[in-house]
């Protein structure tokens, strides 16, 4: 004879089922909140103020010192890690990690349009900053980018590197791959480039850039500031257009 399942066993099963449904509902709501937050994340005021114990301007000449209200803007004529006229009416600052997939999306898809629509017309200047949030390979790639910058090939190197980026994940950056990017970028003196890959000064420059970014509150990449407005992530082209056009009075 088959015995009936005790009532308290049925009640326990019902409680477990209800609990599972509640937990699943909480997870779904959390994921929806994250998606909405990512989709609606816009520009916010950027209070990039240098701390008293890290005065990067102290090593620059008086003519090269940044505006005290916008210390994150270098504003240096001939800056190898910047594009556009130094006196352009709008300046955009980017922080990037060369192993960041969303940084690759910006460089591959959005940056060329900004160059065409604004930089080439003298309306926009873009200054790039490197960080190494994803480990030693990020640091090595940033050093390599600066080594290319020493020969006037920063943007070409960055474009070659990001053109090879996978759709997701953080790619390895062994030395031979970095050399390949430099060759693709048209770096002329490869012996100097390879020597610069071991430059303590370049390593220190990248680490200083990251330290400064963290002091300014940069915790993820890509990160941008346009006219004092901070935003991050793989934003659509229209987000950049809107902020830039507002500054241009259009």
TrEMBL record:
**What PROSITE patterns has UniProt attached to this entry?**
THIOREDOXIN_2
Q: Cite the residue spans of the region called Disordered.
A: 51-71
Q: Which Gene3D superfamilies match?
A: Glutaredoxin (3.40.30.10)
Residue ranges of domain Thioredoxin in the record: 59-249
The record's annotation in SUPFAM superfamilies points to: Thioredoxin-like
Q: Name one GO molecular function term.
A: oxidoreductase activity
Ranges that cross the membrane: 20-39
- Output compositional bias ranges, type Polar residues: 57-71
Which keywords label this protein?
Disulfide bond, Membrane, Oxidoreductase, Redox-active center, Signal, Transmembrane, Transmembrane helix
**Protein family (similarity comment):** Belongs to the thioredoxin family. DsbA subfamily.
The record's listing under PANTHER family reads: DISULFIDE BOND FORMATION PROTEIN D (PTHR13887:SF14), GLUTATHIONE S-TRANSFERASE KAPPA (PTHR13887)
Q: What is this protein called?
A: Thioredoxin domain-containing protein
């Amino acid at each position: 004879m088959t015995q009936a399942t005790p009532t308290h066993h049925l009640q326990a099963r019902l409680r477990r089922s209800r609990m599972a449904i509640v937990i699943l509902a909480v997870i779904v709501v959390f994921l929806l909140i994250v998606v909405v937050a990512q989709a609606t994340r816009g520009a916010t005021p950027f209070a990039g103020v240098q701390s008293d114990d890290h005065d990067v301007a102290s090593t620059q000449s008086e003519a090269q010192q940044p505006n005290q209200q916008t210390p994150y803007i270098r504003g240096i004529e001939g800056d190898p890690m910047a594009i556009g006229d130094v006196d352009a009416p709008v300046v955009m600052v980017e922080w990037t990690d060369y192993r960041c997939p969303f940084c690759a999306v910006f460089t591959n898809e959005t940056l060329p349009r900004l160059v065409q629509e604004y930089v080439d017309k003298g309306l926009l200047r873009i200054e790039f900053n490197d960080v190494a949030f994803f480990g030693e390979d990020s640091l090595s790639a940033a050093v390599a980018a600066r080594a290319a910058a020493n020969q006037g090939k920063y943007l070409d190197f960055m474009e070659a590197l990001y053109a090879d980026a996978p759709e997701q994940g953080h790619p390895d950056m062994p030395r031979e791959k970095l050399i390949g990017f430099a060759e693709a970028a048209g770096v002329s003196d490869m012996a100097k480039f390879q020597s610069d890959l071991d430059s303590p000064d370049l390593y220190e420059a990248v680490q200083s850039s990251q330290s400064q970014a963290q002091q300014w509150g940069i915790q993820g990449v890509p990160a941008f500031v346009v006219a004092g407005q901070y935003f991050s992530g793989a934003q659509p082209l229209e987000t950049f257009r809107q902020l830039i056009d507002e500054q241009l009075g259009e």
